[in-house]
Amino acid sequence: QVQLVESGGGLVQPGGSLRLSCAASGTDFSINTLAWYRQVPGRERELVALSGTDGRTGYPDSVKGRFFISRDNANNRVYLQMNALKPEDTGVYYCNSKYLISGPAPEIEEHWGQGTQVTVSS
User: Fold this and answer.
1) HSE toward the beta carbon, residue 112, CA cutoff 13 A
2) What is the rounded CA–CA span in Å between residue 76 and residue 116?
3) Which of 23, 62, 105, 116 is the most exposed place for a label (fewest CB within 10 A)?
4) What is the pLDDT of residues 61-74, one digit of tens each?
């Protein structure tokens, strides 16, 4: 059974930094696309960082240059370094993994963590 567990959220002042961690069990991170999403009440969950199995990363313009995703495949961990935080970065941050199961009927195996709250406020 795959489990993702996030940690590292909390309250931080505008301009501050936080590092989120996600630890996985029951899967091999090296074959998963990994991502961080955030959600605020009343809005859809949005992607904030993506790490492909080929090492490439991607970010939306809203966080580009401030957020950085990294992965430690040997220890099944993924991190999100968040710098120059803004009040609009407030939300629940979720770790996500996706793995393509190939075959006659390919399907995506996807898993989510329980989320960790990040609050940016003075």
Assistant:
1) 11
2) 18
3) 105
4) 999 999 999 999 99
